[in-house]
Write a structure and sequence with these properties.
Chain A: It comes from Lacibacter cauensis. The structure holds two protein chains of two kinds. Chain A is an alpha/beta fold. Chain A is built from six helices and six strands, in the order βαβαααβαββαβ. Chain A is globular and about 45 Å long. In chain B, strands 6-8-9-11-10 form a five-stranded mixed beta sheet, with helices on one face. Classes of the chains: A alpha/beta, B alpha+beta. At the A-B interface, helix 4 of A face strand 8, strand 9, strand 10 and strand 11 of B.
């Protein structure tokens, strides 16, 4: 069995914890593709369109810790996780999102129980409304409360987050 | 002296820049004027030869052919053809088998000139700014060699004028470009001079001073940023050194004071044997403490220097962690260490690092036993994970934590946080651990919230084994 799951991300380690929680709930014979999606309104000036590069944009957004965290998860779920990629969604309409979901063959969406994204970029936007209308099955993962911890923002944050999975 | 040397160097670079710019300017100007001079004089030569040819043809027509209407031609020629300076038109009949040796001698021009006219039909020659153009002309009487010669007016006047103009232009351009080059090199090196002046003001007395960074995002602001960073590090290391000396002397003096005091009191009067035994026991105890401290210091110093090469082997981090756990549990039976393997990579190759087992064992047991100690033997979570470059070891306790403003001093030898007074220890463990991690080109990150706990993250690069 193969699944493609869409998980919203703000490029924080906390959002990787959702991935971790989601993966830990899956049965071991499922092959999973994870797409970490970030909503970002694009500047539509001619120069930024001319020099648009998604790769560079993602490089700017992803911190070193985030990338390391991704590979930690990839190594942990090496046999289950087929692919894991970060992507940017910059559509404005629901139809655009539906197209994106269809094109990437999304089977499922996983969102945190309490989704409070902390965006670094002011052009980022919350994808949750699109998810709700899309009609795709939505799973929730993560914890209700946000416990303050010393390792916030470090790769260490990924390691201790024993939270219940609903 | 070094400052002077630096100024000299900078001046040299400035002069060098000026010279390079000047050379570039000059070579362009010289190339340009040379090209102009050559092409203009070349053009004027050709033009003059053409003029002479017309004269020669006209002369031949008028003198040799004597066609009808030649009278008008002569009149026209005299009226409109301005006489060229020293213009002379000559014609010689070509008789087969006779060469023009005499004529050549008389005119003082080489015989080849005549031969070429006879052979090719025309020829050019110049000597002392007198130009000769010869053509072969076929008239009714027979074939003739017609030679028109005149002094080149251009050669006499125009070319000298052109040369003069060009030389003046070159001199003017040289002066002008020298000024530009000088200004430019000054302009380029002005920020550098400013930086030098400001850096000179900073000495060990006022290390808190920083360079003002008011320029925009260019190379100079990068340089200033780098300088400021370096000053930050120098300031910290100065502070560290000061702290270290005061802390070390304090730590070493405490047992010594105890020993001296104990001995002093005991010697003040005759004591019983039991009292002597008691005293010597105390002295031995203190001496042992002193010994431990100096040993730890020695070890710290040894790991701090890179001069000594440690033996590095292949080792698996998870195995090492279990060993460490065992060791700590042997020493401190109350410790509760929970090793969490939930993010253990599936591929065990990713857990192998290149390292010295003894040193890493020491470093990890330091961290984990600290975690146990400062959390009053609460559960300590130890977790492992690996990305493609690093192995992560994360030790998390729920202990007393480290005050935020003291976090930057935790790697100073003998430094102890203000909330650790009721715990034993003398502040060597963490600096030692950091040295060991550094030897393994790893990284140690400590983050903490007072009263909540501390998390230590150790990143070790995965060993590359072929």
């Amino acid at each position: 069995m193969e699944k493609t799951v869409l998980i919203p991300t703000d490029f924080s380690i906390a959002s990787l914890n959702i991935v971790k929680n989601y993966l830990s709930m899956q049965s071991s014979n499922t092959r999973i593709n994870v797409i970490l999606l970030h909503g970002l309104h694009q500047n539509d000036s001619i120069t930024s369109l001319l020099f648009y590069s998604k790769r560079r944009l993602l490089e700017d957004l992803c911190s070193k810790e985030f990338r390391e965290g991704c590979t930690v998860l990839k190594n942990k779920y090496a046999s289950q996780l087929r692919t894991m990629k970060t992507d940017i969604f910059s559509g404005l309409t629901q139809a655009a999102f539906d197209q994106y979901a269809e094109a990437n063959a999304i089977t499922e969406i996983c969102v945190p129980i309490s989704y409070k994204p902390n965006f670094k970029n002011k052009n980022s936007f919350n994808l949750l409304p699109y998810f709700k209308v899309s009609g795709l099955p939505i799973e929730t993962a993560g914890s209700e409360t946000d416990i303050p911890m010393p390792e916030k923002g470090k790769v260490a944050e990924l390691f201790f987050n024993r939270v219940s999975v609903s | 002296m070094p400052q002077q040397f630096y100024t000299q160097m900078k001046m040299k670079i400035q002069i060098k820049t000026t010279l390079i710019l000047l050379t570039a300017f000059l070579s362009i100007i010289l190339l340009f004027s040379g090209f102009v001079y050559l092409s203009v004089s070349n053009y004027s030569y050709e033009d003059f030869y053409k003029l002479l040819e017309i004269r020669a043809v006209t002369t031949a027509r008028v003198e040799l052919d004597r066609e009808s209407g030649s009278q008008e031609m002569i009149a026209l020629r005299n009226e409109f053809f301005e006489k060229l300076p020293q213009e002379k038109d000559r014609y010689y009949r070509i008789t087969p088998g006779k060469s023009f040796t005499e004529e050549a001698k008389a005119l003082d021009i080489p015989i080849t000139f005549f031969n070429e006219i006879v052979k090719e039909g025309k020829s050019e020659y110049n000597k002392n700014s007198v130009f000769y153009k010869g053509i072969r002309y076929k008239s009714k009487q027979g074939e003739y060699v017609v030679i028109a010669s005149a002094q080149n007016y251009f050669e006499l006047h125009h070319s000298a004028y052109l040369r003069r103009t060009l030389v003046f232009a070159i001199i003017a351009a040289f002066v002008f470009s020298a000024l530009i080059a000088l200004y430019f090199s000054r302009y380029v090196f002005r920020p550098l001079r400013n930086i030098t002046d400001r850096v000179k003001e900073i000495s060990s007395e006022n290390l808190h001073l920083r360079l003002a960074n008011n320029s925009s995002n260019d190379e100079m602001s990068d340089l200033i940023g780098t300088f400021n960073n370096m000053l930050d590090r120098i300031e910290t290391s100065f502070e560290t050194q000061n702290n270290f000396i005061s802390n070390a002397s304090h730590e070493l003096r405490t047992p010594l004071t105890a020993i001296i005091g104990e001995a002093d009191v005991t010697l003040s009067k005759i004591r019983s044997t039991d009292e002597y035994i008691e005293t010597i026991k105390v002295i031995l105890d203190e001496a042992e403490t002193l010994d431990r401290k100096t040993k730890a210091l020695l070890f710290l110093a040894q790991t701090g220097f890179n001069g000594k090469t440690q033996k590095f082997d292949k080792l698996r981090i998870d195995q090492l962690l279990w060993d460490v756990k065992e060791t700590i549990e042997k020493i401190n039976t109350e410790s509760r260490i929970h090793i969490d393997m939930s993010l253990l990579p599936e591929n065990p190759v990713k857990l192998k690092v290149k390292g010295n087992e003894q040193l890493l064992h020491l470093a990890l047991s330091n961290i984990i036993s600290n975690a146990c100690k400062y959390s009053n033997n609460n559960v300590v979570n130890v977790s492992i994970g690996a990305s493609d470059q690093n192995v992560f070891i994360i030790v998390k306790d729920h202990g007393i934590g480290i005050p935020g403003n003291e976090l930057k001093y935790i790697y100073d030898p003998f430094f102890r946080a203000s909330n650790t007074l009721k715990y034993e220890g003398y502040g060597i463990g963490l600096p030692l651990t950091r040295n060991i991690i550094r030897i393994h080109s790893g990284e140690i990150l400590v983050s903490s919230i007072v009263g909540q706990g501390t998390t230590v993250q150790i990143n070790l690069p995965i060993g590359k084994f072929e």
